[in-house]
Amino acid sequence: MARSSAFVAPALPATGRVARAPAVCMGAPPPEAVTRRAALAALAAAVVGVGGASSASAGPAASQSFFGYGGASSPYSYADKSTGSVLYKDLNDEEVGKYRAIYQASRQDLSETAVAAIAGKSWEDVRSALRLRANDLGAAAKRLSDASSSSKAANKAYDQFKASANRLDWAARQKDQAKATAAREAASADLDKWGQVVGLF
After folding, report:
1. Are the C-beta atoms of 173 and 165 separated by less than 8 Å?
2. Quick check: 30 pLDDT over 80?
């Protein structure tokens, strides 16, 4: 028996007819769908039209009114003269306190944890002390340095701290106690210098 590639629908046993799919009609939609569509279009037009007509008189700022209540005015107005003190500050006391705590914790890691780890020749602990708060200290340094009145000097001082911290990391990798001790002292001094430039103490 030869196979053909064409599909042949199975014959029905009783009648011998071929089963067929129902016919698909592409005619006009039923009348209830047209009225539903028209009703939805009318509803959409009513919702859009709720805003009402706006006056185009010169001077007042743009506003929108919903459900008959007065529209909110724009916070900006032409030729407005500000009076009084400025309320916005680049850094508030809460932020400075948070960044000071990060700085103090990083300083403690360098002065206590790293010293003990270098003395005990626990090199992974030295490297962990450097990395423990690196992300937080970096974010604090960026924010405090940018807000500082001498941001160029602050960024330079922080870059110097990062370089000495990298030297400490390298000395810990090399397991050189003398170099690690010198690099830790330099990193601690550079961190203090940066803290002084940004005004943390």
Report:
1. no
2. no
Residue 67 to residue 52: CA distance in whole angstroms: 10
CATH number of this structure's domain 93-198, picked from the four choices 3.40.50.2030, 3.30.420.40, 1.20.120.290, 3.40.50.300? 1.20.120.290
- pLDDT tens by residue, 136-171: 999 999 999 888 888 899 999 999 999 999 999 999
Contacts of 148 (CB under 8 A, 6+ apart): 154, 197, 198, 199
Q: 151-158, long-range: CB within 8 Å, 24+ apart, which pairs? A: 153/197, 154/194, 154/197, 154/198, 157/190, 157/193, 157/194, 157/197, 158/194
The answer to whether 145 and 155 have CB atoms below 8 angstroms apart is: yes
What is the Cα–Cα distance from 107 to 119, expressed in whole angstroms?
18
Coil, helix or strand at residue 172: helix
| Burial (0-12, 13-18, 19+ Cβ within 10 Å), 185 | middle
Stated pTM of the model? 0.56
- For residue 152, the model assigns a pLDDT of 92
